[in-house]
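Students often ask why we bother encoding 3D structure as a string. The short answer is that it lets us treat folding as translation between two languages. Here is a chain of 218 residues written in the first language.
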Amino acid sequence: MEWRKNIRYVAIDMSATYRAAIRTGLPDAIVVVDHFHIVQLANKMLSAVRRRTTAEIRGRRGRATDPEWKARRRLLRNREDLTDQQFATMWNALLDEGPIGQTLLTAWIAKESLRTLLALARTGADREEVGHARWKFLTWCADSDIPEACTLATTVDRWWPEIAGFIDTGHSNAKSEGINRVIKLVARNAFGFRNADSQRLRTRCVTTRRARGHLNPA
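And here it is in the second language, the structure alphabet:
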């Protein structure tokens, strides 16, 4: 179809199936990976490292009294969203814990290094700056000797053309992801609807509320 030729970029999740379908149906479009899913992958890596190291060293699952368990939420937050006091509390507690804490902090640095790389999007960074940030991330993961971090680095390297597309363009599918989340929420809340048309109407009303903001039924 003629309209396909006008599609220049397609933002997707990190799914090989999506990528293959786009390359088949839209061979001229540039595939871009949404950065949210890349960071989400890094956070999953952190959680996996925490669970594994706790099981290996403590011989059990994490408990509320463990420093790494107490810090689990702060580890997943962005550095800029932590106050200096919150960061110092997390860092010092894990550093004093020994191998478990030190391994977690190493994995946390890998996550933040990846975020630093992604943050170059929409900044006009040149290829040398992007390449240096990428090298720092990959090198840190390789030197960390943490299997989960090495797996993350391998995934980022395998998807680099699509990640570089995001850094170059800044395109994201955040809006469609947000609409999809609202649709799922409405579907869960409206599970009692027996009329599919009523459920579709409710979904349409909720997802177009911003566009209809000038209307005030009250």
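Translate back mentally: The first strand starts at residue 9 and ends at 12. Keep this in mind for the problem set.
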